[in-house]
Amino acid sequence: MAMPTMAPIERRALHEELADKLRHAIIHGELKPGAKISEKVLCEQFGVSRTPVREALKILSTEGLVQLMQNRGASVTEVTWEDLQDAFPIMGALEALAGELAAKNATDDQIDRAKALQSRMVSRFKKGDRKGYFQVNEEIHQLILEASGNSALPRMMRTVSLQIRRARYMANLSKSRWAQAIDEHEEILDAWVDRDSQRLGQLLKQHLANKLTALEKKFA
Amino acid sequence: MAMPTMAPIERRALHEELADKLRHAIIHGELKPGAKISEKVLCEQFGVSRTPVREALKILSTEGLVQLMQNRGASVTEVTWEDLQDAFPIMGALEALAGELAAKNATDDQIDRAKALQSRMVSRFKKGDRKGYFQVNEEIHQLILEASGNSALPRMMRTVSLQIRRARYMANLSKSRWAQAIDEHEEILDAWVDRDSQRLGQLLKQHLANKLTALEKKFA
DNA sequence: ATTATGTATTTTGAATACATTTATAAGAGG
DNA sequence: CCTCTTATAAATGTATTCAAAATACATAAT
Which helix (H) or strand (E) holds B75? Predict the structure, then answer.
């Protein structure tokens, strides 16, 4: 029999899907910081038993998105201003490293893709499309990571970036800060094209620092 | 009633204890890279049911010590030479950050403790007590982390440091490298006492880089 | 009224039972 | 002898059940 090009149906484990959905909900603020998470509610909501739910919660807990309290359930971790102040320098150090490596190791193709993404991002900005902007923005940073050639880096940045992305959704960025970010990205791209690793690293670090300053007004 | 100073009885969850024991076993090489992990075996070994075992494995997997394959069990993640080459620069960047912050924020008491630990470490070295040396060494790096005042940093470094500690146990360090490491720690302490944040950061980064070079001979 | 104490309910922790999937082995056909 | 089936066993994924703890509620005492 065998029909042409049948992709095998992929069956993911329930705990994985649950973890993904919960992670998404937490990052996008649908599950608010401090909110109590009831196993029972999740079971009913997703139509699964408690076993995969509990396994998913263990994962989220290790990622730092959820807090488990002995015998008294789980809750979404809070993100305080102090937490952010701590997280951003770390992210800065790691992005700087990623930048330095990317400047050295990126293929010409990757730099071309960066250019394309940059112009896409600018057009999203001009349309005032915040959601689209964030999406492209993510892709650029993802590309830098990929171009760094350091396979451990994405994994390490994941946890930090999860928290930072949460903050981004909690505090909407101002129009002026948005414009500034666009300019910064322009510089970042230039440094990359020039393969100026020191400057690229420095710019990424500064970019992060500015992001934190912008958040300060919303938080503190 | 109230008796004098009664500590509350602490009861830990099984999955936590299991995770601790497995983590220790993996880091210390008792569970070798690539080794298959059978849920059943762990159940029998620790006298618990599969539920907490599975939860512990989810945690270890998120930490990167264990690899889960859909429907075909878990195995201890391999640490290749490439992985280490990727992990060390990350650890270096984070340690450098920790050092810079520690130089700025450490209390006098913390620096005193560092001095004490340093002399303890030297005496362990003179006795040729490798295990004791590693222990004190860990404590010093822990102290730097604590002194950095960045509460997110330990959490972030945890995952990387887990892999690096594994490598340390896989390849025994040579006597000459050991002596060199002692010297480097002397310099590190000096920079800290002087509160020279730039230099401390740089030294820590270099210390890591040298560690990697030392490992290269064992691995490649 | 307020605090304390005892009881019921709810929720989580852990073990068992059931369902799928994968690995292993035995046998038939080439 | 090899390959492909097919049967069987073993291991994992999920659901269910049982046990322990925490919370909520009601009652009694001060």
Answer: strand B74-76
Using a CB-CB distance cutoff of 8 angstroms, which residues of chain A are in contact with residue B65? Answer: none
At B59, list the tokens: 């945690």
- Note every long-range contact of A200-203, with CB atoms under 8 Å and residues 24 or more positions apart, other chains counting: A200/A99, A200/A100, A200/A102, A200/A103, A201/A95, A201/A96, A201/A97, A201/A99, A201/A100, A201/A103, A202/A96, A203/A99
- Give residue A3's pLDDT: 42
Mean per-residue pLDDT pooled into runs of 10, chain B (220 residues): 63 96 96 96 97 98 96 95 93 94 95 94 93 91 94 90 89 89 94 93 92 87
User: How many residues comprise chain A?
Assistant: 220
A194 burial via Cβ count (<10 Å: 0-12, 13-18, 19+):
exposed
What the block records as the tokens of A128 is: 């005032």
Q: How confident is the model at residue B11, as a pLDDT? A: 85
**Chain D bases near protein CB atoms (7 A cut-off):** 11-17, 21-23
| Secondary structure element (H or E) that encloses residue B124, with its range | helix B108-127
What's the confidence (pLDDT) of residue B159? Answer: 86
Cβ-Cβ contacts under 8 Å, B13 against chain A: 70
DSSP chain A: ---TT-PPPP---HHHHHHHHHHHHHHTTSS-TT-EE-HHHHHHHHT--HHHHHHHHHHHHHHTSEEE-TTS-EEEPP--HHHHHHHHHHHHHHHHHHHHHHHHH--HHHHHHHHHHHHHHHHHHHHT-HHHHHHHHHHHHHHHHHHHT-THHHHHHHHHHHHHHHHHHHSPPPHHHHHHHHHHHHHHHHHHHTT-HHHHHHHHHHHHHHHHHHHHHHH-
Q: Give the β-pairing of A66-68 and A74-76.
A: antiparallel
Asked if B55 and A59 come within 8 Å (Cβ–Cβ), the reply is no
Pairing status of strand A74-76 against strand A36-37: antiparallel
Residue A5 has pLDDT above 50, yes or no: no
Inter-chain contact A152–B83, Cβ cutoff 8 Å? Answer: yes
Angle between helices A81-105 and A197-219 (to 10 degrees): 160
